[in-house]
Specification:
- The protein is built from 15 helices and ten strands.
- With about 375 residues, the protein is of the alpha/beta class.
- The protein has two domains: about 160 residues, Rossmann fold (3-Layer(aba) Sandwich), CATH 3.40.50.1970; about 180 residues, Dehydroquinate synthase-like - alpha domain (Dehydroquinate synthase-like, alpha domain).
- The protein starts with about 25 loop residues before the first helix and ends with a helix.
- Bound molecules: nicotinamide-adenine-dinucleotide and zinc ion.
- Nicotinamide-adenine-dinucleotide binds next to helix 3, helix 6 and helix 7.
Length: about 375
Amino acid sequence: MRGEMIPSAVALKSKDYHAKGHNSANFRLQYSKMHGRVVIEPIASQLLSGFLKEVALTQLAVLVDTNTRQQCYPLIQSVLPSHHIIEVAAGEEHKNLATCTQIWQQLTDLQFDRHGLVIVIGGGVLGDMGGFCAATYKRGINFILMPTTLLAQVDASVGGKLGIDFNNFKNHIGVFQEPVATLISTQFLATLPHRELRSGFAEIVKHCLIADKSKWEEIAQKDLSDQNWQELIAHSVQIKQQITQADPREKGLRKTLNFGHTLGHAIETFSLGTDHRLFHGEAIAIGMIMESFIAQQKNLITANELEHISQYLISIFGKVHAPFDQNRIIALTMQDKKNKGSKVLMALPQGIGKAIWDVEVSDKEMVEAMGYYQRI
Ligand SMILES: NC(=O)c1ccc[n+]([C@@H]2O[C@H](COP(=O)([O-])OP(=O)(O)OC[C@H]3O[C@@H](n4cnc5c(N)ncnc54)[C@H](O)[C@@H]3O)[C@@H](O)[C@H]2O)c1
Ligand SMILES: [Zn+2]
């Protein structure tokens, strides 16, 4: 069944939102008004200390990976009460049961009780895995996420999806569980490698294309270095919150967040077996170009809109010239979790700022979309 159109995102009003300056007197006021419990503030230590004043703590564990321990933990260390650090190896290859076992073991060794709190300081890998460990330890203890990559701030931080990879299946084991709060500081982005920052930007572009035309027009006039991250993170979080709150279990509307991801995921997976490994956002940028082409072919967007999307994404992400194995990529799209039976179903823009889902797409259309990407 073909889904309905989603409404354009509402205009951002700062009073409705939690992005704010760092006036700590305001913090409690804002905090009590929070819905969705996502707070965005520039200075990480102020953000966290404001939060910690509001909670009664027995035990506190801080989960970091090797990089975030070096780059991010020092920014908040001074405001933390007595705590234990749990450090794990960085990278998607460690988002697995073996690392969970280490985390659960350390919580057990610390005799962590059900009133303890885990603060996860890391990117999407750590947020998904740390949240999963907390949500399952003793049937669930509280955790907060402090996402430290742009991708984690604008995407993984909202929607309550937690989990790990299993036997090469991505996010195969997991649960839905919201953190007590998600605390987002743009300060962490200062140490993030450029390629990681750019990768997260793809999700921001996606949010604009599926839900906010005027924001799309605004960001598309700027290069990566001119973007206002504080504002864009707030905007993306708001869009993702609206969508996930309307459809927490991904029965309909939430599928629009998969725009760019059917072909994008397949290309990402394909690239992992080549010398041109793509970051998630890089593959999603390609997926958005290809899927916009399919949308244009189906008269959902105009040729001008397609050209604008393609030109802008290429200007930011460059063009990948490595050959795509089309048959293999199409075979990979068949494994997409969102398909029904043997049909490939996509979320596609319908005009800019709106999207529809469960649109059936044929192999031929995907081949043509890959051809389009190679021609531009
Ligand atoms: N739960 C969701 O809804 C959701 C949504 C999107 C993605 N994800 C998951 O997110 C994961 C990808 O997340 P990611 O891109 O953040 O990767 P990541 O967590 O592996 O972080 C990327 C790298 O940057 C390092 N790093 C993190 N923050 C840093 C900082 N501030 N300064 C310097 N280095 C830093 C990390 O140690 C790591 O090496 C995937 O596993 C994906 O499945 C989940
Ligand atoms: Zn994504």
